[in-house]
């Protein structure tokens, strides 16, 4: 079943599937063969009933009285997520973040293939990063077509992100993963996922500030009492 076949599947359900997949991957690494919605729930902080509901949307998984076979469920969820399609990725921007992403083993472990690295800086172009050589963004359309790249990763400064997004769309990219802290305009048929690192840090800062504030208030209250 694809997302196109059932557009009624909620985004929340789809967003939880990678968490289940990661959990099953870790269970498989630990040598666990059979698991339960309770165990997956404990590891993902998702209600077991919600897990059963999410999985039921895509079909019948698990065996009554036994549980879920880890390898089988992992393969099924991987298929639902399209991880068996081996999508090719191009990373644009070889600054610290771009280099870190290019070196991140988690990308290849999920089945994605880093097919191209691009930059605009003549000093960086031609340098090697693992098996790949950094290439001139001027050749992006030809390389994307030649290597069948479907996903573009934007790791450039905010000021250049929209221009890069336009280039990627023009080259035939099917989806964009954006790390630039800016809202991008892309055609409706191009899925866009934006990761704003500052939002996560700011949320953490908020939590830490308010925990500290609440602790302070509690301490003052105890002193008064």
From TrEMBL:
<dbReference type="GO" id="GO:0045892">
    <property type="term" value="P:negative regulation of DNA-templated transcription"/>
</dbReference>
<dbReference type="InterPro" id="IPR058236">
    <property type="entry name" value="Rex_actinobacterial-type"/>
</dbReference>
<dbReference type="InterPro" id="IPR036291">
    <property type="entry name" value="NAD(P)-bd_dom_sf"/>
</dbReference>
<feature type="binding site">
    <location>
        <begin position="93"/>
        <end position="98"/>
    </location>
    <ligand>
        <name>NAD(+)</name>
    </ligand>
</feature>
<keyword id="KW-0805">Transcription regulation</keyword>
<dbReference type="InterPro" id="IPR036390">
    <property type="entry name" value="WH_DNA-bd_sf"/>
</dbReference>
<keyword id="KW-0678">Repressor</keyword>
<dbReference type="Pfam" id="PF06971">
    <property type="entry name" value="Put_DNA-bind_N"/>
</dbReference>
<dbReference type="InterPro" id="IPR003781">
    <property type="entry name" value="CoA-bd"/>
</dbReference>
<dbReference type="InterPro" id="IPR009718">
    <property type="entry name" value="Rex_DNA-bd_C_dom"/>
</dbReference>
<comment type="similarity">
    <text>Belongs to the transcriptional regulatory Rex family.</text>
</comment>
<comment type="subunit">
    <text>Homodimer.</text>
</comment>
<keyword id="KW-0520">NAD</keyword>
<dbReference type="Pfam" id="PF02629">
    <property type="entry name" value="CoA_binding"/>
</dbReference>
<feature type="DNA-binding region" description="H-T-H motif">
    <location>
        <begin position="19"/>
        <end position="58"/>
    </location>
</feature>
<dbReference type="InterPro" id="IPR036388">
    <property type="entry name" value="WH-like_DNA-bd_sf"/>
</dbReference>
<dbReference type="GO" id="GO:0003700">
    <property type="term" value="F:DNA-binding transcription factor activity"/>
</dbReference>
<keyword id="KW-0963">Cytoplasm</keyword>
<dbReference type="GO" id="GO:0051775">
    <property type="term" value="P:response to redox state"/>
</dbReference>
<dbReference type="GO" id="GO:0003677">
    <property type="term" value="F:DNA binding"/>
</dbReference>
<keyword id="KW-0238">DNA-binding</keyword>
<feature type="domain" description="CoA-binding">
    <location>
        <begin position="82"/>
        <end position="183"/>
    </location>
</feature>
<protein>
    <recommendedName>
        <fullName>Redox-sensing transcriptional repressor Rex</fullName>
    </recommendedName>
</protein>
<dbReference type="GO" id="GO:0005737">
    <property type="term" value="C:cytoplasm"/>
</dbReference>
<keyword id="KW-0804">Transcription</keyword>
<dbReference type="InterPro" id="IPR022876">
    <property type="entry name" value="Tscrpt_rep_Rex"/>
</dbReference>
<comment type="function">
    <text>Modulates transcription in response to changes in cellular NADH/NAD(+) redox state.</text>
</comment>
